[in-house]
């Protein structure tokens, strides 16, 4: 039984930690650093260090990773490739990113499991909800790869879906900016940042935080989303401690 929006019974503030079980969504672009393409080892190592801090707080952490740094299915389909094939290629890109994150985390001594929605037994476990839950309960970090396993669905939708399935308290959406703005802050210096915004306003204003399917899923299940700059040191741990970082999307 839930005690508050987005929270599980007994999962309130414990030893300075606001959330017990967290789903972290990392875009593929966040892994390429300043390279413009591919995986930047230094960036992945930095993120692994930030994730290690979360683990040391006793939080249960699952990760959904995108693949836009390697391949974008939607973009390829606009350029003439058949959409389903392009999306499957994008799913394979997320598997590559998941393995890179796993390697960086395990070099820090953390226990991890990669679960893929597409069966690749030599590289990852197949996605099984109950198994993912057991891994989290045992303190392992679970990295979900290959999106939902279906074309036409984004990794944002996969993040919302997996968060529901594992009963996460919150989705942390790591981006290159420090929250949600009413305009592109890179192009418009007078853009206004929201500290809090409702699901309905995100949809109504067409703010490209996550796709509409993901936002709707979170709205229907009262799951909060925190959009923040994943490149800034200690941002994730500050959020877990209740700090006002980024933008919170909720009812």
Helix-strand layout with pairing:
Layout: E1 21-26, H1 41-56, E2 60-65, H2 73-78, H3 83-107, E3 112-116, E4 125-126, H4 129-137, E5 141-145, H5 155-165, E6 170-175, E7 180-181, E8 193-194, E9 196-198, H6 199-204, H7 212-220, E10 225-229, H8 235-240, E11 247-250
Parallel strand pairs: 1-2, 1-6, 2-5, 3-4, 3-5, 6-10, 9-11
Antiparallel strand pairs: 7-8, 10-11
Description:
The chain has 251 residues and is α/β, with parallel strands linked by helices. The protein has a single domain, classed as Carbamate kinase (3-Layer(aba) Sandwich). The chain contains eight helices and eleven strands. It has helices at residues 41-56, 73-78, 83-107, 129-137, 155-165, 199-204, 212-220, 235-240; strands spanning 21-26, 60-65, 112-116, 125-126, 141-145, 170-175, 180-181, 193-194, 196-198, 225-229, 247-250. The strands form two sheets. It has a nine-stranded mixed β-sheet, with helices on both faces. Helix 1 links the parallel strand 1 (21-26) and strand 2 (60-65). The protein is globular, with a radius of gyration of 17 Å.
Strand element count: 11
Regions with pLDDT < 50 over 5+ consecutive residues? Answer: 1-14
Largest sheet: 9 strands, mixed
CATH 2nd-level architecture: 3-Layer(aba) Sandwich
Instruction: Give Rg in angstroms.
Output: 17 Å
How many structural domains?
Answer: 1
Question: What would you give as the CATH superfamily?
Answer: Acetylglutamate kinase-like
Give me the CATH fold name. Carbamate kinase
What's the CATH first level? Alpha Beta
Give the overall silhouette: globular
**What fraction of residues sit in β-strands?**
15-25%
Structural class label: alpha/beta
Strand/helix succession: EHEHHEEHEHEEEEHHEHE
Total of DSSP H or I helical runs spanning 4+ residues: 8
CA-CA gap between termini? 18 Å
Share of helix among residues?
25-40%
What is the average per-residue confidence, as pLDDT, rounded to a whole number? 91
Adjacency order of strands in the biggest sheet: 4-3-5-2-1-6-10-11-9
